[in-house]
Specification:
Blueprint lengths: L1 E5 L4 E8 L2 E8 L4 E4 L6 E8 L5 E7 L6 E7 L4 E5 L8 E6 L6 E5 L4 E7 L2 E8 L21
Antiparallel strand pairs: 1-2, 2-3, 3-4, 5-6, 6-7, 7-8, 9-10, 10-11, 11-12
Length: 151
């Protein structure tokens, strides 16, 4: 289970496996369900990231037409807004991070590689790949600077 709390709206999002399906559920501060991810979304990873501007949840989905995982964006009401194929081969996405300006998306893979993505009208472009080898250790997490959104 992966959970996120968004203070501005006083809601919490959970990536839960329940009744044989993995779904993203959003709850208000009283614990009432606000939304559940669309039934057409097939989530196959615990990865969940809240866009700091508050508009979208990013997760990893398995599309029937794709051999690899795709990054999927859900609105707070649970509806799918968009997705893109990061084309990272057989690597698995283990976490997703947004910078504080909400315009750079970082994908961390199981090989400790980082991919920095930006978008223009939902056309996603990989701007940089940071590769790490086993001799240098691995990445545990990514933290963006709150004062300088590109550090």
């Amino acid at each position: 289970m992966h959970s996120l709390w968004f203070k501005v709206f006083e809601i919490t999002a959970y990536n839960l496996y329940f009744s044989g399906e993995q779904k993203i559920r959003v709850f208000d501060d009283a614990g009432a369900t606000v939304s559940i991810s669309d039934e057409s979304v097939v989530i196959n990873s615990p990865v969940l990231s809240w866009q700091p501007s508050g508009g979208l949840l990013a997760t990893v989905e398995k599309l029937p037409s794709q051999a690899t995982d795709v990054v999927t964006f859900l609105e707070l009401n649970g509806l799918k807004r968009a997705d893109f194929d990061p084309k990272i081969g057989n690597d698995k996405i283990v976490d997703i991070y947004w910078n504080h300006a909400s315009d750079v998306l970082t994908l961390q893979t199981d090989t400790s590689d980082l991919y920095l993505w930006t978008r223009d009208n939902y056309a996603w472009m990989c701007k940089k790949r940071i590769a790490y080898d086993e001799n240098n250790g691995s990445i545990c997490s990514v933290i963006w600077d709150m004062d300088c959104p590109y550090k």
